[in-house]
Amino acid sequence: MVRRLAALLALLLVLAACTGGGDGGAPAAPTARDVPGTIVVASGRDVTGKNGVRRRLIDAWNQREQRAGTQFRARLVELPGSADEQRSQLLGALQSRSAEYDVVNLDVTWVPEFAAAGLVRVLPEELVDEDVIRSVAGTARWGGKVYAVPFNSDVGLLYYRRDHLARAGVERPDLSGGLTWERLRDLVETLDGRPARGAYRKGWTTQLAAYEGRTVNAVEAFASAVRDFALVDEEGRYTGTVEELAAGIAELRRRTETPYTLQDAFHSDEAASLSDFAEGRTAFLRHWPYVYPALYRTFTREQLGVAPLPGRAVLGGQNLAVTSASQRSGKAAELIRFLTGRESERCLLDAGFAATRESAYGDGVRCATAVAGPSASPTGEGADPVPRDAGGRPAYARTILLPALRDAVHRPRTPLYGAFTQTFTAGLGPLFGDAPPTDEALAEQLDEALRKALPD
Amino acid sequence: MTPLDPRGLVNRALLVGVSEYDLTEPPHGVPGDLPAVKHNLNRMREALVRGRVFGEREIEVARSPSLDDFGRALRAVAGEAEGVLLLYFAGHGAIPSAGDELFLQMRNASVVAGGHAVFPGAEMFTTVLTVLATSPARRIVVILDCCFAGNAARVWEHFDDKRRVMLLMSVQANHRTDAGDPREPTPFTAVLAALLDEDRDTTLSDLADRSRERMTALGLRTLRDDPWEPQLRTERGMDVLLRPGGGQDPPAPPPRPSVPTPPPGPAPPPGPTPPQGPFRAFPAVLLALARGLRAALTDRFRTPGPPRPSRRAVTRIVLAAGLLGLGLYGLPRWTGGDEAACAPPLELRVLTDPDLEPTVRAAADAYLTSGENTTGDGCRRTGVTVYSAGSSDVVDALRAQTGAWQEPRNEDVNPQRDIGPQPDVWIPASRADADRVEAGRDTDAVAALEPAEEPLAYSPVVLAVPDALSSEALDDRVGRPLSEMVDRLTARDGNAAVRRPDPEFTDTGLLATVGLYGADARAVARGERMVAQPGPPSPTAAELLCTLPDDDAVDHRTAALVPEFLLRSGVGCDATTRSTRYAQYPEDVPGVEPVYVRVRWRGADRDERERDASADGFRDWLAGERGRAVFARDGFRSAYDRELLDAPRDGEHMLHAPTPLVESAGRDAMERALRAYRDAGGPGRVLFLLDSSGSMIGQWQGPSGGPGLLRQSLGGLGERDEYGVWAVAGTGDRPYGTLLRLGPHGRADAARALDAGARVRDAEADPHAALLAALDEMGERGDDRRPQLIVHITDGEDNGRLTGERLDDVLDRARATGVPVTVVSLQSGGCDPGRPDRRIADVSGGRCLDLGDDLGAALHDEVARTGTGEG
User: Fold this and answer.
1) How many CB atoms lie within 10 A of CB B106?
2) According to the UniProt entry, where is the signal peptide (chain A) (predicted)?
3) Residue A377 resides in a domain
């Protein structure tokens, strides 16, 4: 159970990385102080089944360096799948130097902490250029400087069963144009009026267990209910108010009312909620882009649809940073430039990640064949189940994913994110307990706890 | 006048840095240690050597000397120098009251406060100058990096023999400064050293001018929030060359992220602003003062506009003003200005046994928000992340894989990925684990263990007997060896069974196995018969108690070997329906005794002192009253008298004092039991079926792809084990090709064969035919009674051929041959109930692993259970 839980946690922040063909051209000269040798890239185990795209991109960079006759090579060191363990090892190792890393793949919520602690370096501004989706680019900075370049992004989405809606007589079962929570509740009531046979139990499921997933779902509710919701200022100091928190709690309570929500959701993480949806226990699922290919292995295009999440959706993803201890920081930044370049981002998108650049969603950039990976065999065995557009991208990339990323909200950006999310998750626990307090009472408790966790 | 060029003369430099003080507690201690100063000495020495005025042997370094040692060293260098004599001092400086003499505080310094404070263990600056002036040197350079350094100027001005003496002071008189990030040199010394690194002629006056400019550009400020301005005092025209330019530099030191270079400029931007050191010695008296004043003054100071002092800066200003008159001063802090209120805390990585994880995590959660872990500013000193991994994997890794743990060199052996972070603290369930590591350790191990003397708590391993089979008689519950208790249990009910958690995954299982095998592990076969069960054992004791109620009949007739504390803290499943269980206390099963072990990694010295302080703080809390309360709540006993820390409640059926309890587990007993367990069935036989059909192209590469997972699992097989690999692709007569014939192999040879032969075929797979062939193959070979296992790694794409009668065929054959089939399903939900892969695994007694599992580690464990392993 322990191991399984750890693996499931890992699935949560799955966005691992990959690489791609950069922007072409010869490698820039390393800075004079770079020591030739291996650039160690530390990144969480890729549990998304992306077939080693990350490694292929690094291989492509190594080949380029070899051709250029340099002595620099990059090597990927995989960390545990669990995000908590990744963070712990990266922090502990960089603080103490118990291990040497040159490039680290950071969850977007960790960037302020690593930057404020002086564990990663300031990077050239131009690594995060105008092509990077604006909301995503916001994860790169701390204190006005670029510390971590977006590698792959992520955003909350709504998956739904088109066949259930059609069977229940819903006239337009295509929800890709978006919907409100009120409309979602109406649809659930319609479904409940003419319930599907089999495993169907409740309208929707999501991740409400006491871990990061609860924070994500709560921030989505809070940000939908409170205009310009942030909880912290740009320096990471707590700015929340009891009124804001109460409004957010009220919205979260509405969203998780038991007539609409699968009971298991209150104990679910990513894997459990995905499994419930795949088994047909719900018609709606809040989840991340990485399950898009997996769900199309389970369901046909007639059965499955994907839509923007009603209200605001939280931005996830991972960014690459150069460690302060690196002896080859110039070359490491060059590697990052390659891994986060236009071609690489296109490769990531094709492989199923949410790309961080606008250009990946356009028609001007292709993924180099060397990185694109093997294709399906001529027999048709293993034919790609993912619906794709004319450019070869997942069909929803331009119409659903990109707009969702542009409109996504950040979780609070603070160097003390660990303390924040632990407090936030625990503080919201009573809402899902046997005797939930009022919005105001819970907001007051939460406010007090957050003030303590994020002292001014 | 041309500055003196001292090259070629006999020069001497004495670098004195006091980073550690004997007395740092009120009322007479100095305000705290100064870890940054340790880095000053290294950095200054390096810069002077690069400057080539001083030869390496001309530089003497005194680290935290006592007053006597300082005096001796000063006299020695003063007598030897003929060209330039340089004295550098970094440490605490103190003044009795504003504008008076300056005292340089050495290791044995103390403070006697009063109207005119005195400073035992400190050297008066007047005395220092007097000794220096005895030197025949042509120039005498003094550089002071300490609070109130500028107060030396007045002493110099009144000094008679000052013509040769040149004085560079880090800060103006009556000002205190922050020592900055404890992991880096102090700001002033960092600037000096950076300037000395530059390849150009640099005299002492240049150093003074340019350090002032640079510190202004960096926006550095004193604790009174004035601009921080280094001071120089020399007689007119006196100067000395300290760094000639135009030469060949020795090799450059590695880049230093925090060397202050003022932005903007053509040079690469500097590293991030040095963070606030997470650990400071805040004397209680100062804290109390700070808290009192802060409440009253904070709001007045909180005006917008740069540089806006944070609340903590305000506290420091208040402290500065308030304490100067007392003759005390300076806390090591950085006054960065615009950072968040609290610096990110130091992260402790805490590894524990899987059965202990919930308790240790609860303790860590409580510790995080405890007063002990909170600074006076409300900040956390330490962050703690608790995680667990299989107990025998951890022992093996600490014993023989610390090099790979620190620096994973290949995909096959990577403890960072498969076990977890490099622990700073390890809490195994028995002290014997640490002894096992020590006993068999590599000579080149890069991690050293320091186990605490005493365990944190105690919990006996009990035979938890279901209500229906239990005996109320005390005679049945205590005072008998485990085997006898099992015999009596089966005598009461012929259908009674016993289960134990996986001895390789949790110490509870191994401790129980010590009892099952009896003295010297002589009764292995008998012991294994007692706990024989269909399918693999549960990984942990908690999971065992959760698995049993899946089948009520099994739950009601199966006793479980689990730690007693689980009968109290319980498990989060089937609370209302599972059997009530009574604890019986075998006299030959050692108990669980969590012990704190500090783990030190070679080279991890960047924050050694702070990490030690953090680790010690957590250890003391765990061993103290509040830590004990967590263990008490979870049902543990005292490590000392073995009494329950909390009395049993209704419905908890443990004995208050189940004497006699046995002594602690022994290193050799555990090692012997594990070896015997691994060898119990003799060498094993494993047949891998690697789906190589076209669809696997998306699940092929990298350590999470099919071949990568297979290769990682080979570590669980030894040279006496037999194994083989079939590539499953193609239909009709030949549903597989042989990549590696079934037989004994060296791991390297096997990996090479896989590298050479494993590839995706342009074909579909027929898992039905391949599984039947594999079951037949293993069935035929099974006469030698070796433990056997079939591993099927697949993406399930061709499970369309595993339905209806075909699936029934496979299920029937699996039942008949009794060979467990473990399926690794590379698709989400591949092991959900009812799926073909899950049914095959369940029927055969194997396991079904899907993307919800940590596939690499889980498959390794499954294979290792069948094989004898590499150890």
Assistant:
1) 26
2) 1-28
3) yes
